[in-house]
Amino acid sequence: MLNPRWVFVWRVFQPGLGDGVAFPSASEAILNACFTAGGMAAALQEIANAVNAEGATLTYSHRTTQMGAITSKSLLEHVAPYISADRPHDPRPQKVNPILTEGFRLDQDDFSADEIDRNPFYQDFLRPRGFGWHACALLSGSPDSETVNLTLRRTTRQGAFQPDDLAVLSAQLPLIRATARITQMMGGLDGLSLDPIDEARRSLFGFDASGGAFVVRQGQETTNVLGVRGERLVVCGAEQQARVKMTVDRALTQSRQASSILTDDDGHWWLFSVVPASMMVPSGMTPFLSWAVLVPYARSDEVNLTRVQQMASFFGLSPAEARVAGLIGDARTVVDTARILQTSPGTVRNQLKSIFAKIGVSRQAELVAIFSRF
User: Fold this and answer.
1) Which of 116, 143, 210, 343 has a CA between 20 and 30 Å from the CA of residue 67?
2) CATH fold of the domain at 196-296
3) Does pTM surpass 0.85?
């Protein structure tokens, strides 16, 4: 059950809906429902209704391959025909690739009227079922990797989406995207119905407008790792407490997600990640709060450095620190790293200290494991 205080702060006043009319943001609906498929389906229907759409779909894909999807109730009867091998090829995954810096893409943005009129997917599959128009926005990821997309669908009777139709929802896209990111980290988009063991190992915290911390969800197994005392996040150990503060401060000052690793008494790793309000609230709106997530962080012995830059951004490493981390993560020694970078071993060691502090590890072997996990 979500903290009532959390639910209240996500109610915003939308222009054009009448003075004093509280319009519940789509992010509130998603967050309230993010741990059950049925609840998410109901939230998607609310989002669709807000822009006069028949229904909505949330899809989780790897590049052009769809790995899973949740649909609003109004679309359930169409799921079986859509996944049938007999239906015409859907041209949209290969051609419709929205990015995080833009809003919704409409059919007419990527297809000409002639292309739609001649395409079997639109004319032989969608039109006989009464559907004809889409609006798609990227919520998380990038088109060349894993993505979470929100697609709104209109019937031929409702007509094509127009840019003005999506103005209300587009204004809330930063909120929806941040909520989707948090939901994904909490397991809601991947598992949708976490079993009790997984749920006990995930916690979600919030910060109100004055910066006070409060618990949104607290898993039983996380209570000894991170908690709230006197509206302040509290973790065991002075070093880890300083790391938590540094992570929160970095997220707020840099207006970006910031993360670090915490450890429990048994030496298990936990990912602590903060999404600041500035990433969630469109320009001109008052920031309400930020989120902090605590989830288990599985170790891995397999080294994969293809995402070094991604990890550098994730943990707030400088370009110089990223180069050092990448080489050390490839099992290079400090001396080898210094030779490759044409610097001194002492400089590399100093950079490693900064890297360790930002990430929350203390040994080179742990750095290798951290970077191989992503």
Assistant:
1) 116
2) Beta-Lactamase (3.30.450)
3) no
